[in-house]
């Protein structure tokens, strides 16, 4: 009989796949339970900072992810009303030397595949699809989860990586969502349909009153990701539906023609009514903890959702090794460093949303905030975020 510890990971998204791989690297047997009929991702593009690449390197999949990513030249914010540049952060050689990694954009499917391909073939990882967990229990003997078909799974520990509407979080925390009232539309535009003057090798954000647009290249520049966000006029319910061009256009009246031309390009839209949750003092109990969006659902304004999930996974493994396999102690250590950091992300993201959507005098103040600032100024300001690495992951930052 093996004395190897066993873990259940609920959720097979980016965070769940990374958690499974990190636990397996600690010589823990993993059973991953995914409610969908296949392991995969939906959606379009995401952004990856140097912290994400540090995590990917620690998981052993950094080079694969790099081969599928588009490395950017800069990150830029433009004023969507007058078309002028507000701030530009260069992400070339000096940026990479400063933070030890690149800034890149990638299709969500490609980053998930980069992690899952390694997890799927790892001898310590098994998985089950079409398995929806609906009951969780933990005590001094371990953890037990039950799916909707009555099947029972037991292990020494449980990691809830089952997204913003987490069943595991319902057991450990029991709180509800904070619906933001902000609606996000996402679409992918083929290169030939993208306006030529906007084929820019960078994430470009056009900040407008109560709205903004973001675009950047995907898959070697053959496609472009387009994300538009606005403050809804109606009460929203957290979820995803099909969208309409007419609704989008109604919220982007009066913006500069250069960004406005993109709104005519998508042939289909998906509509997200967004939500986050207020940070809490503890995610788990006993030998149960949370990871990724289950732990800290966040809006998209800092482009850190996937990055934080990857950091979580690596930190979880580091904590287990640090505590020499004492799972309760490891989960407490993990939460002690991850909760403050991810809370800072959630709260900072809310403020970034306010800055992006500023109007009137607030817009004028925003546009002066970063005027004539040096690249060194920006690099120092974001070191707390992009300077994360496995070697410092157990130190609060």
From TrEMBL:
Residues 6-324 form the FAD-binding domain. Keywords: Aromatic hydrocarbons catabolism, FAD, Flavoprotein, Monooxygenase, NAD, Oxidoreductase. InterPro entries: FAD-bd, FAD-dep_Monooxygenase_BioMet, FAD/NAD-bd_sf. Pfam families: FAD_binding_3. It comes from the Bacteria. Its EC number is 1.14.13.24. Its cofactor is FAD. It catalyses: 3-hydroxybenzoate + NADH + O2 + H(+) = 2,5-dihydroxybenzoate + NAD(+) + H2O. Transmembrane segments: none annotated. One of its GO terms (molecular function) is 3-hydroxybenzoate 6-monooxygenase activity. This is 3-hydroxybenzoate 6-hydroxylase. It comes from Saezia sanguinis. The gene is mhbM.
